Amino acid sequence: MIFWGIFWGAVLGSWFGGYGDFGPYVGGILGFFAGLSLRWAVRSAIRSELQAQAAKPAVNPVPLAPTPTLAEDRAPAAPVVAPVPVPVVAMPAASKSPIEEADAEWVGELTPQGLSPVPPSVAQSRAPAPPTTPNAIEQAVLAAKNWFLGGNTIVRVGLVILFIGLSFLARYAASAGLLPVEFRLAAIAGVAIALLVVGFRKRVDKPAFALALQGGGVAVMYLTVFAAFRLYGLLPPTLAFALMIAVCATSCALALLQDSRSLAVAAFAGGFAAPILLSTGQGSHVGLFSYYTLLNLAILFIAYKRSWRVLNVVGFVATFGVASAWGVLKYVPDQYASTQPFLAVFVLIYLFAAILYARNTPTKLGNAVDTMLVFGTPLVGFGLQAGLAQPFELGAAFSAVAFAALYLLAAMVLVRRALASYRLLIECFIAIGVGFATLAVPLALDAQWTSAVWALEGAGAFWVGMRQARWMPRAFGLVLQGVAMLAFMDGVSSVSRLALVNPAFLGALLIALPALLLAWWLRKPLPHSGSAWAKGYAGVEARLSSPAYLYGFAFWCLAWLLEITRRVPGLEAGQWPVPVFSERIIELLAMLAIVLSAALSMVLGLRTRWPVATWPARGTIAVLALGFVAQVGDGYRVLATPAWAVWPVALALHGWMLRQTDRLQAAAAGDGKPAARMSVFGWFHAATAWLVTFLLADCLWSGIGKAELWRTSWAGVVMLVSAIAVLMALALWAGRGNRPAARAALPWPLNPHAEAYYWLAALPLAVLVFWGSLLAAVHSSGHTAPLPYIPLLNPTDLTLALALGGLVFWRRVLVSAQPQPAHAGWVTGRHALVALALLVFIAINTVWLRVAHHFFGVRWDASALFDSFVVQTGYAILWTLLALSMMVLAHRRAQRPLWLVGAGLLGVVVVKLLLIDLSNAGGAERIIAFIAVGVLMLVVGYFAPLPPKAAPRAAPDAPPVAPVAPVAPAATVAPAQEESLS
């Protein structure tokens, strides 16, 4: 490489005239350093590959003598004699693999010579420090030092000086005109031939010296032919080209004869450079690539015999580098037929070269892989092929398919030959083939079909990794699923004339099915190689079964949603696509499709005992709720066609899935019996009851709409009536199971979810009934058209009565429950009774307001009702009657607090008479109010005197109390009380 760096530098320096006569020398010096850097790069790549494939001891004792290298690079060095003998413990020699022996010179030359030996005791006592990587300048200086000081330094320096001297001689003779140019060039060629002859004759006695002379002779011959053709025009192109071929063939033969890699590299480098150096710009690309084909076949032949990686690299870089440059600068589409065969031949040659290199380079871990040939050939080759096929439709896609088929076929052939040592190469070929197959999809199809194919390919890669107990293909398959999803969502479109076979539906379906298949495979731990990476991936993989199934189920539902929302292209240009179904039908079909999908998933889970397959059933209540909201938002009723047929099916499927979910939960408990306490799934039952409430209300609204009663009280109490009906039904039906013994005898769903129905489901309904009754009592005017208004028998009053009865009955169910539900104390305590009493009081008052509105003509307005003396008089009498009722009841039951409440209400009546009713001067209402209230108060005083205080209860352990004097009879106290009340 260094010789050729000097040669190319001298050639470029002679072309560049900025340095005058010193141009070739400056170029040669720069080429020297370029050759050093190139050789260092190649050897670094080889050394990295060796370190990665061969196990090295942690600490190696430094030998007292330098390591011998191959004879072609340096002569054997004299042994280094240590000033003080150091005893060295004999250690077994590590066996070298063939690749270590073949590349010993390339690794050994990068190590500086003359290092002092380290005693084994010191080397074993200290841990090896991590190696430091030198920078670019240090590497260049080190490489130059190794080249000059390693091996036969005198020969190498002498060759450089001889090359410079010959250049000086040629330049001097040309400037002085001493000899004809033909004679000068012939003399230089004679010197080159002499170097070759002398080097060949000394190949046995002094191999390193001989190879150095032959390498210099080859470089001088190439330079002489180039100068004769390019600088002086003494040779025609054909003859110059033939001479360079002869030089290349001769040097190649010498390299094979002497087993010299460096000489072969020099020969082929000159061979590849010959057509470039001798080009006149008028040659044919067919001739150029035919010549390169012969050179590459020669390299392939040598690869069959020798494991010379650097020679493969030189041929690969030269061939594809020149081909790329020609393709960019000279190629036109008319030359496709004469170019395509050469590109195919080049790719095949270096594919086989990679296989031959692996065959000839065994290691402890299997045959080595030349990464440049294995990966560089398909990448560069496909780039050139895509450029050639650019004018053709789907040319790049078919090119990717061809590359995929080529590498997968090569992998299959190696597998069928049962070459276990080729495992790494086979895996690389499979990866390349799969990669090109993946690349071919987006080059040929749109985003939706691309995502579908990638999803299927990901499932296939996962299956291969599962069969081979390898984690990397499985990880690639999972990643490809995610990429497929992103590609699909980026280009999804539901416009198509075809039903069920359009890209949107099939694309989503072909993403869902592989994902479901992956979830099925991930149910159990999969085998792996046992490495640290494999174990880490296995931990992640063990948690992916459930997410993968839910992901696949989501795309399954998405496929049906895309089909349901499919649009047909317009018949005329510029017309918007037309939906296949109307918005209302789309909502119903979408809801039904998801519920049916969840039911099918439940069937799958039951038959395969796969728990995650039963999970979608838990979300059907949310789907039904969303479907109902969307339907109501569009003004579409449950009883409309075809909703009346869809909703029963959906609810039946939902109920069946609830039943199966409870069975699975009971089986998971271990005893196979339903759990006594309400489980978390009770919320699904409660939500179902709420949904039924709204569905019933929607059915009632349908009747209101058909009867055109929207502006009447019938419409105002629809939701309240629905809530009351469901609340009463829950209290009557589920209230039977408010005790454990009674619940155990009940069928499903009350056993085990009775509490979920009479508490969780009923509680929101009870709150709705309470506040709905309050609002209905205050705001409803009692308009009952087309029927006449009848007090207490109109929709508002009847609904309020039903609401109060339902609340009281539901509370009694809770009070008698054993044990009572958690946090139910505020319902079963006295605060709830106070709230109910307040609601009763308000409801009774609003009954009078509606009577005044309908029979006395008082306008239904807050201010008008308050200013009406009829209303105020009625309130005075009504409140007095209520007070009378409470005080009589309290007197009979000896409930002093209730009597005091009635007395307080009487006091409010008296205050109201004095502040409001007294202002109605001359009105009959004032007279009626005062007389009625007075009479009623007399009745209260006579029939309901104040009950006595309850005697304090004695403590259980207190001693008996002595008898006291008898209390005066109540009859003697009554007159005094009557006086005080009067």
Description:
By secondary structure, the chain is mainly α. It is built from 38 helices and 4 strands. The strands form 2 sheets. A two-stranded antiparallel sheet has the order 1-2. Mean pLDDT is 77; it is low at 15-22, 56-130, 671-678, 954-958 and 961-982. Helices cover 70% and strands 1% of the residues. The radius of gyration is 51 Å and the shape is elongated. The longest helix has 31 residues, at 23-53.
**In which range does the helix fraction lie?**
55-70%
Low-confidence stretches: 15-22, 56-130, 671-678, 954-958, 961-982
Given the C-alpha coordinates, what overall shape results?
Answer: elongated
Helix count equals 38
Enumerate the strands of the largest sheet in spatial order, edge to edge or round the barrel. 1-2
- Sheet/helix structural class: mainly alpha
Strand fraction equals under 5%
Features:
982 residues, mainly alpha, two-stranded antiparallel ribbon, two-stranded antiparallel sheet, 38 helices, 70% helix, disordered C terminus
List the helices and strands and how they pair.
Blueprint: H1 2-15, H2 23-53, H3 98-102, H4 104-108, H5 120-125, H6 136-149, H7 153-176, H8 181-201, H9 207-231, H10 237-258, H11 261-277, H12 285-305, H13 309-329, H14 336-360, E1 362-363, E2 366-367, H15 371-388, H16 395-416, H17 423-444, H18 447-467, H19 471-490, H20 503-521, H21 532-541, H22 545-564, E3 567-568, E4 578-579, H23 583-608, H24 620-633, H25 643-669, H26 682-707, H27 713-716, H28 718-734, H29 740-744, H30 750-779, H31 795-815, H32 825-828, H33 830-855, H34 862-867, H35 869-893, H36 896-915, H37 924-943, H38 970-981
Antiparallel strand pairs: 1-2, 3-4
Helix pairs in contact: 1-2, 1-9, 2-6, 7-8, 7-9, 8-9, 9-10, 9-11, 10-11, 11-12, 11-13, 12-13, 12-14, 13-14, 13-15, 14-15, 15-16, 16-17, 17-18, 18-19, 18-20, 19-20, 20-22, 22-23, 23-24, 23-25, 24-26, 26-28, 26-30, 28-30, 28-31, 30-31, 30-33, 31-33, 33-35, 35-36, 35-37, 36-37
